[in-house]
Structures are given as C-alpha cells and as structure tokens.
Task: inverse folding
C-alpha cells in the first residue's frame, strides 16, 4: 500500500478510540453554555435562539466570535433521511455521564406550587427507575416568595470512531438516495 494512503488510515485508526465529550449548562439568568472536548482539545461557547433573515437560527458565541447556524428543513429528502439515520446511529452509541437538574418551583399559589413540585419530583424518580443506568440527579424544592428557576446540566460522551462511522453511514445513505431518485425519475421523450 502506498505511504500516502497508509499514514492517513493509521491516523484514523489511532483516533477511533478517542473520547468525545459534549456538555451543556443552563443557569438562571445566563445564556445556555455548551462545550465540546475531543481528547485534550476543548471549545466552549454560549448558544441562543435568534431570527436571521426571517428564519430561526442558533447564535453560537465563543472567544473566536459569533456564528449563525440556520435552522430549517432541507428540501432534499434524501439528505434529510440520511441525516436522520446517522443521528439515530450516534444516539444509540452516546452515553450520558452526568445529568443534573436543580429546580425551584413557584406556580403562584401554595397549592399549585406543591403539586407541581411533587409532579416534577415524581417524573424524575420514575425516569431514574425506568433507566437505572442513567446518572440522573435531581433536586426539586418549592419557593413561595422567590421566583422559580431551573439549573440544568448534562455531559455526554461517545467515541470519535462512532462519529466517523456515522459520517460514512450518512454518505452511503445520501448516495444511495440520490441514485434511487435518479433511477426512478422517468426520462422525457422528445
């Protein structure tokens, strides 16, 4: 095998077991903080929902500047189907390392506040019982004189090799979808 092909393949094989961690933190009164760590390299920024040119977009602000990521449906159905399959592949291999929710509930009156806090606490407990491997920690308390707030945090991890396989799955599904569309399109006779 030529050296020009062997070196990148060896590099990819060495990167496959590299852990990729992503996390989020939503504190009261602060923007949603997101982070990505690939091995020793880390990137952090804040994420906000905004409108750009009449369409919804995500504003990603980091130390390098701001970037708008448009949110919209793709007109290409084969690309949307391929993205869906690749995302399902990644979600099955993603592992939650830490999930935490600290909630202060205030629904206006005492009775509604206590009922809502009990309902949220029961939902968290039933989620822990249904998924015992999920590292979920939740704390719910009532606030009768102060406003309600939520502090949510989560850390998820997967391997770089899974991301590479998801990219290959996306390419395969997209190419086959385009090929199917080309084969099934009737030709026009002149």
Result:
């Amino acid at each position: 095998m030529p050296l020009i092909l062997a070196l990148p393949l060896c590099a990819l094989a060495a990167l496959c077991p590299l852990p990729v961690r992503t996390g989020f933190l939503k504190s009261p009164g602060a923007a949603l903080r997101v982070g990505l760590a690939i091995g020793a390299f880390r990137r952090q920024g804040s994420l906000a929902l905004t409108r750009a040119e009449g369409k919804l977009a995500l504003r990603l602000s980091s130390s390098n500047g701001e970037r708008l990521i448009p949110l919209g449906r793709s007109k290409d159905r084969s690309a949307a189907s391929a993205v869906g399959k690749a995302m399902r592949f990644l979600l099955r291999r993603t592992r939650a390392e830490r999930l935490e929710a600290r909630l202060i509930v205030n629904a206006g009156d005492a009775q509604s506040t206590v009922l809502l806090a009990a309902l949220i606490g029961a939902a968290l407990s039933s989620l822990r019982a249904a998924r015992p491997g999920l590292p979920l920690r939740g704390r719910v308390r009532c606030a009768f004189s102060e406003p309600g707030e939520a502090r949510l945090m989560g850390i998820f991890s997967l391997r770089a090799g899974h991301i590479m396989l998801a990219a290959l799955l996306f390419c395969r599904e997209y190419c086959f979808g385009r090929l199917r569309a080309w084969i099934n399109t009737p030709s026009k006779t002149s």
